[in-house]
Design goal:
By secondary structure, the chain is α/β, with parallel strands linked by helices. It has one domain (about 5-235): TIM Barrel. It contains nine helices and eight strands. The chain has helices at about 15-25, 35-50, 65-75, 90-110, 140-150, 165-170, 200-205, 215, 220-235, and strands spanning about 5-10, 30-35, 55-60, 80-85, 115-120, 155-160, 175-180, 210. An eight-stranded parallel beta barrel has the order 1-2-3-4-5-6-7-8, surrounded by six helices. The longest helix has 18 residues, at about 90-110. The radius of gyration is 17 Å and the shape is globular. The relative contact order is 0.15.
Length: about 240
């Protein structure tokens, strides 16, 4: 499939998020609802997205014992949720519980099953940070090992950096989805991201989804910024 642009609604107020949704609604984008938006004003934002017919990603990164994650996923699945994240480091049983819960709840509601994406190694973590976490090897090695757990749990795919996508597709096939944060258009500031890539590099690597936040939401013309990234993805 073509690489899909996911715009992170990482903004402090519902009003600003709503303006972004309105501004970008004519473009071929998905939206990502993360901690700031979900915990701050999710009660208003999720119905607004659903009323507009927008599919969105819940970037909740669940990481707990299997039963807790199972019930958390059940509570989060609702119309409009296309993707939902959990941490691969939660282990095989936890990942399986998330996948099972998504399928169960979607069947009860009569809606498509959201894809469970397992977060591997955060793009804010540099190779030298891994030893502090007790992880041996580089980011790529750890991401592939965690991706294997996600595949065995029947997850839809993983969240990883662009640098891991080619190996991921070689090992697990093109149907196993790769969503890549840490995307910055050429010339943009990296912020707190340490393993970054451009939209064109993500497309060339085979990423299924890219997440872009600040380069769009903080631009004076978010629609133009998003349109430029979409053009890079289609070049």
């Amino acid at each position: 499939m073509a690489t899909r642009l996911v715009v992170a609604l990482d903004v402090p107020t519902f009003e600003r998020a709503e303006r972004l949704v309105d501004t970008l609604s004519g473009l071929d984008v998905m939206f990502k609802v993360g901690y700031e938006a979900l915990y701050g004003f999710g009660h208003a934002l999720l119905p607004r997205l659903e009323a507009g017919g927008h599919s969105y990603m819940l970037d909740v990164k669940l990481h707990d014992i299997p039963r807790t994650v199972h019930e958390g996923v059940r509570a989060l699945v609702r119309p409009g949720v296309a993707l939902l994240t959990v941490h691969a480091l939660g282990g095989l049983e936890m990942l399986g519980a998330a996948v099972e819960a998504a399928g169960e709840r979607a069947a009860e509601l009569g809606i498509p099953v959201p894809g469970i994406l397992a977060v591997t190694i955060l793009t804010s973590i540099a190779p030298e940070d891994l030893n502090e976490l007790g992880l041996q090897g580089g980011p790529g090695e750890n991401a592939i090992r965690l991706a294997a757990l996600a595949r065995d749990a029947r997850a839809h795919g993983v969240v990883c950096s662009v640098g891991e996508v080619a190996d991921l597709k070689n090992f697990f096939g093109t149907e196993f989805a790769a969503l890549c944060p840490g995307i910055r258009p050429a010339g943009s500031a990296h912020g707190d991201q340490k393993r970054v890539a451009t939209p064109a590099e993500a497309r060339a690597a085979g990423a299924d989804y890219i997440v872009v936040g600040r380069p769009i939401v903080e631009d004076a013309d978010p629609a133009a910024a998003a349109a430029a990234i979409l053009a890079d993805l289609r070049a």
